[in-house]
Design brief:
The complex is a heterodimer of chains A (about 350) and B (about 90).
Chain A (H helix, E strand, L loop, with lengths): L6 E5 L25 H14 L3 E5 L9 H10 L3 E6 L6 H10 L3 E6 L4 H8 L4 H13 L4 E7 L7 H10 L4 E6 L4 H5 L1 H4 L3 H17 L5 E4 L20 E4 L5 E2 L20 H7 L1 H5 L24 H8 L15 H12 L13
Parallel strand pairs in A: 1-2, 1-8, 2-3, 3-4, 4-5, 5-6, 6-7
Antiparallel strand pairs in A: 8-9
Chain B lengths: L10 E2 L4 E4 L6 E5 L2 E4 L2 H8 L7 H12 L3 H17 L3 E2 L1
Antiparallel strand pairs in B: 1-5, 2-3, 3-4
Classes of the chains: A alpha/beta (about 350), B alpha+beta (about 90).
């Protein structure tokens, strides 16, 4: 089978003025210089030639790159659909104008809550008002808007109000992303995991809003895998549809793959993207079903969920090559269950806030 | 959602792009985090969703291309546009 990537996540920088304790950036940043404008231009061209259709421009905070409009232009020139994934820090009218001229297709702004004070506390920065103003400016400049809110113990009880905020901002799309435990979020997971009761209350709120807003706002809400019996089909399979290029040029099958310490990720400075995608050891390691141990190998869902998430297997079971412990059939499931049980009554500890490299 | 009438002019919603797959040549809709491969009829409809045509004009144009009466196409075209509208891929 010939594999083809459809989506490139371009992490342009690790620099970010926010300090969200659930950031999926690695808690230990890799060494190296950020890719230059010319290097990114080559990455976009090579990605498009491989079949990539979407480029997510992310970070860190992508607006920290002074050459962002040039990078958007290069991605568009390569034919890619461009989505700016931003905290909105640094998004002003002048930059919006440059991004519009460069052909940017969509803007996704993260919010931490619907209320200023808790939002600023979670972000570790006074950003809520800046975000509100930026979202309105983006809308006025003619951009379609996605609002992304990472849900966790401290904000999930505000789900109704968060949805109302997205409506007020006239977002076309609302991503209610239950926190996933990698990078900084894994370090802070005891303070972030919602309780079973909080999830049970949130599910019908999201479902009702989805129904009510049909045709006006697309709402994405997925029950978190820590509370599910089935693992998530992580990245739709390893090295199957997605690739990430991190700020220093390493190419990853998923944004958090640096959690897997046994893998070495090849760099666009040393190899063509085509070779890395098709031939590199890291991309071939968990591709398809050949690598699967039991119970995955004989499971009827092996081509539905692909054994779940390799990073989660590495973090929870200490081995990226076993069934994701979020699966009820995993021999390591107990570790997840114990953690989830303990978290129900836990006094949430203080957050370890994300630091810059 | 306002009703679809003969005077409605359907256009692609903002942030939605119609293009050919560079590898296969097949028509696609691209939108935030999404890719929708199009069948030939939906593609023919969307090619005409430029704002120049009303629904009545769109049915007439398609009927000429397919060599059938406009009313024979109406149910399918309305169903197709209504579905795309719910998915926020077209507006009118």
């Amino acid at each position: 089978m010939k594999y083809r990537p459809y989506l490139l996540l371009a992490e342009l920088t690790y620099r970010c003025p926010l300090h969200c304790p659930y950031c999926s950036n690695p808690a230990r940043y890799p060494d190296g210089r950020e890719l230059t404008t010319a290097e990114w231009q080559r990455v976009f061209r090579e990605a498009a030639a491989l079949g990539v259709l979407h480029a997510g421009l992310s970070g860190g905070e992508p607006l920290q790159r002074a050459d962002l409009p040039e990078l958007v232009g290069a991605a568009r020139e390569a034919g890619l659909y461009t989505n700016l994934i931003t905290s909105a820090a640094g998004l002003n009218e002048a930059r919006l104008g440059q991004l519009k001229a460069a052909g940017l297709d969509n803007i996704q702004i993260s919010f931490q809550s619907d209320q200023e004070s808790p939002a600023n506390r979670i972000a570790g920065a006074a950003m809520h008002r800046v975000k509100l103003a930026a979202a309105r400016m983006a809308h006025a400049a003619g951009f379609p808007l996605t609002v992304n809110v990472v849900l966790h113990r401290d904000n999930i009880d505000r789900l109704e109000e968060i949805i109302a905020l997205a409506e007020e901002l006239e977002a076309e799309r609302l991503e209610l992303a239950n926190v996933q435990f990698y990078g900084w979020a894994f370090r802070n997971r005891a303070g972030l995991l919602p309780t079973r009761g909080q999830i049970a209350a949130a599910v019908p709120v999201a479902a009702r809003a989805k129904q009510r807003l049909l045709g006006r706002m697309r709402i994405l809400f997925v029950t978190p895998d820590y509370y599910s019996d089935r693992p998530k089909p992580c990245m739709d399979g390893w090295g199957r549809r997605f690739l990430t290029v991190n700020p220093v040029g390493e190419v990853l099958p998923c944004p958090t793959a640096k959690e897997i310490k046994e893998l070495r990720f090849d760099n666009v400075r040393d190899h063509a993207l085509d070779w890395i995608w098709h031939e590199s050891a890291a991309f071939r390691r968990f591709r398809g079903t050949e690598w699967m141990p039991l119970p995955c190998r004989e499971c009827e869902f092996r081509e539905v969920d692909f054994g779940g998430c390799r990073c989660q297997a590495a973090l929870l079971a200490g081995d990226a090559g076993v069934t994701d412990p979020a699966c009820a059939l995993s021999p390591h499931r107990e570790r997840l269950t114990e953690f989830v049980q303990a978290a129900q009554s836990l006094e949430a500890p203080d957050f370890a806030y994300r630091q810059n490299p | 959602m306002n009703a679809l009438t003969d005077q409605s002019r359907a256009v692609l919603a903002r942030g939605v792009r119609l293009r050919a797959d560079p590898l296969s040549g097949e028509p696609l809709l691209l939108f935030p985090e999404g890719i929708l491969p199009l069948d030939a009829t939906t593609h023919d409809i969307l090619l005409r969703c430029t704002g120049d045509l009303t629904l009545a004009g769109l049915l007439l144009a398609l009927s000429e291309e397919y060599e059938v009466e406009p009313d024979e196409l109406r149910t399918d075209v309305v169903q197709c546009l209504t579905h795309l509208r719910q998915e926020m891929l077209v507006v009118w």
